[in-house]
């Protein structure tokens, strides 16, 4: 009996003594029966049913048994039946087992990166200039327009938690992205129609016709469109980073390095979309009309869908595994009830952790050595009570496994890291508002071209686009050689660098504001609307440090939450990065109000109030934010130095 592999889907079986087998051996590679029975067949990656040809008539015993075995193994492999050819816990877009070598990898993740460029273009093209649209065309007052923009952006990022939750519980990240993109597309269609139709906007006002703020059905149409966009953005932010990161094998050093590269380039792609948004699209909105700006955003998000779908045959999609919030609530309630019933901490975890069943159940979820586990148990004895010593919990619905308790411990461990990044995002919100107003008072000419203040974020965007490849291809390899570790710079070190750079960015912002006000005072232009004789490139200095801080922190946070969270909570945990950004926006409004109230009571004018920004005490406010950032950095060091990694390779 001779076997010849003709193609990935065709196997030729011949009798070894036949004349035909000799001719075939000149063209096709003969395979010995021993090789066929030992190997997980490489052609198992094909989804086309195999064709088996029987050459030289019927087969005779004992060859018939081996032939049946080969055919059975082949068919089993073609159905994804070999464990070592499948990605455990993953399916393809048709809900079939995902196969190694066919699904996942950098090629699959690259489709998510391109889709993110278009999605962020569609979002930031309007968000960066939305305050002008609301005040100029919808006749909102400047304060109301600013509040509406802050609420819109904050809501969009907070809704990322919803997108992450749905990805973990009910749907895959693949489906959540597609649904969210269509929702965002619908919202942009509504905004485009309203911007295009004069009857759907307030009447134009002038010196003789007072301005009337949009209301009634027109206001309803505006906010329905805006918050449909926010819902779509939230769903995409909550699913797309996780979808891309899930394409890599975290059990191999190569897979972990590729995943780290993916997060670097995810931030790079965010910047690519932002660059087009704050330059080309902002110019179109200012010169051709807002209906064209909304139309470009609509086309961008529409194009992202087929590009994302092109990668469908390459994706491996994580199978949803239940509600993480239900697990967290159940463990906390069970721990409280069991604490009331008995004051002695449960020893169930200590007893079960030594058993083979426990080690098998949690080996893929809870990493680390015995000392780390012991320390975690000592610090979280309260949660250990969720596992009752008796076989009967307080209520059948509150029965908790050891794995569930450990998962909740992991979530509680990462929350302090999340909280420490909110102040940095608060600084980002301050610079994205006040810095634009500062630039509007300065000389914004670049040669013969005048740069609109709304395009000022181009500086951090371009710097991130330059720094991201440099970081991935130069800084990280150098750090790996120096530290002799797999990561070079681990997640928490990366986040810490970003937080430290935020301190520098606020200090630079304060110094630049001192210089700007000095120029205004020396020129006698404190109360004038004329441009100051100082170039707006001075503002770029603080943006350079802020862009660096954003790159280090956002990419570090995304990867940290993805790698450290239990696999059943990864989408939700990754969404915390965007929730931190949302809370930073909300916190910025609170800090501004508090500062104005406190400084107004001192008998002087509020720091952030006046008929012109030249009368603001913005330099003092920036020094305050610098001090808060420094305190926040110390707070971060307290938690980061005590953190014990659970994921493989994260601390190597």
**Going across the major beta sheet, what is the strand order?**
3-1-2-4
CATH superfamily placement of the largest domain: MFS general substrate transporter like domains
Number of domains: 4
Q: Fraction of residues in helices?
A: 55-70%
Quote the CATH topology of the largest domain. Answer: Growth Hormone, Chain: A
Question: What does the average pLDDT come to?
Answer: 76
Alpha plus pi helix count: 24
The largest sheet, given as strand count, sense and whether it forms a barrel, is:
4 strands, mixed
Low-confidence parts, pLDDT < 50 over ≥5 residues?
Answer: 3-29, 33-67, 75-83, 344-373
Question: From the 3D coordinates, which CATH architecture of the largest domain would you assign?
Answer: Up-down Bundle
How much of the sequence is in beta strands? 5-15%
Protein name: Protein NRT1/ PTR FAMILY 4.6
Family: Belongs to the major facilitator superfamily. Proton-dependent oligopeptide transporter (POT/PTR) (TC 2.A.17) family.
Main location: membrane
Keywords: Membrane, Transmembrane, Transmembrane helix
């Amino acid at each position: 009996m001779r076997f010849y592999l003709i193609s990935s889907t065709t196997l030729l079986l011949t009798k070894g003594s036949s004349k035909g087998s000799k001719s075939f051996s000149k063209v096709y590679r003969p395979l010995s029966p021993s090789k066929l029975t030992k190997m997980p067949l490489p052609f198992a990656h094909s989804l086309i049913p195999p064709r088996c040809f029987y050459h030289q008539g019927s087969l005779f015993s004992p060859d018939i048994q081996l032939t049946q075995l080969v055919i059975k193994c082949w068919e089993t492999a073609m159905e994804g039946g070999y464990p070592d050819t499948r990605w455990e816990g993953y399916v393809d877009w048709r809900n079939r087992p995902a196969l190694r070598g066919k699904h996942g990898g950098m090629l699959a993740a690259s489709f998510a990166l391109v889709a993110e460029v278009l999605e962020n273009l569609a979002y930031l093209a309007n968000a960066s200039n939305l305050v002008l649209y609301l005040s100029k065309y919808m006749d909102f007052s400047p304060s109301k327009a600013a509040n509406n923009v802050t609420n819109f952006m904050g809501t969009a990022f907070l809704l990322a938690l919803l997108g992450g939750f749905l990805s973990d519980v009910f749907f895959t990240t693949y489906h959540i992205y597609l649904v969210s993109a269509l929702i965002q597309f619908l919202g942009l269609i509504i905004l485009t129609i309203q911007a295009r139709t004069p009857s759907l906007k307030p009447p134009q006002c002038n010196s003789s016709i007072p301005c009337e703020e949009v209301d009634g059905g027109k206001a309803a149409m505006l906010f329905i469109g805006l918050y449909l966009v926010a819902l779509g953005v939230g769903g995409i932010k909550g699913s797309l980073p996780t979808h891309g990161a899930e394409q890599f094998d975290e059990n191999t050093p190569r897979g972990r390095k590729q995943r780290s590269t993916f997060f670097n380039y995810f931030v790079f792609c965010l910047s690519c979309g932002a660059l087009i948004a704050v330059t080309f699209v902002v110019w179109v909105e200012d010169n051709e009309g807002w209906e064209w700006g909304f139309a470009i955003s609509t086309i961008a998000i529409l194009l992202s869908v087929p590009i994302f779908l092109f990668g469908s045959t390459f994706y491996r999609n994580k199978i949803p595994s239940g509600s993480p919030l239900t697990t967290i609530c159940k463990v906390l309630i069970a721990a409280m009830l069991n604490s009331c019933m008995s004051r002695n901490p449960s020893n169930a975890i200590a007893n079960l952790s030594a058993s083979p069943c426990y080690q098998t159940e949690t080996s893929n979820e809870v990493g680390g050595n015995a000392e780390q586990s012991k320390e975690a148990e000592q610090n979280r004895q309260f949660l250990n009570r969720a596992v009752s010593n008796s076989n009967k919990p307080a209520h059948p619905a509150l029965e908790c496994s050891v794995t569930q308790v450990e998962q909740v411990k992991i979530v509680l461990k990462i929350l302090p890291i999340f909280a420490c990044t909110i102040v940095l995002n608060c600084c980002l919100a301050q610079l994205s508002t006040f810095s634009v107003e500062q630039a509007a008072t300065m000389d914004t000419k670049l040669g013969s071209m005048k740069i609109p203040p709304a395009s000022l974020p181009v500086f951090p965007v371009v710097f991130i686009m330059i720094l991201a490849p440099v970081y991935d291809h130069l800084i990280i390899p150098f750090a790996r050689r120096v530290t002799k570790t797999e990561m070079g710079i681990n997640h928490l070190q990366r986040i810490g660098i970003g937080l430290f750079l935020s301190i520098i960015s606020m200090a630079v912002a304060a110094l630049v504001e001192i210089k700007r006000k000095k120029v205004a005072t020396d020129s006698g232009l404190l109360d004038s609307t004329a441009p100051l004789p100082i170039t707006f490139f001075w503002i770029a200095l603080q943006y350079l440090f802020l862009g660096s801080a954003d790159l280090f922190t956002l990419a570090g946070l995304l990867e940290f939450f993805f790698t450290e969270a239990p696999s059943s909570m990864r989408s939700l945990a990754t969404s915390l990065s965007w929730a931190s950004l949302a809370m930073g926006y909300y916190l910025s409004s609170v800090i501004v109000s508090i500062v104005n109230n406190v400084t107004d009571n001192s008998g002087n004018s509020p720091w952030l109030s006046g008929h012109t920004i030249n009368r603001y005490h913005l330099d003092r406010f920036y020094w305050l934010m610098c001090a808060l950032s420094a305190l926040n950095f110390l707070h971060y060091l307290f938690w980061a130095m005590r953190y014990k990694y659970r994921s493989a390779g994260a601390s190597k």
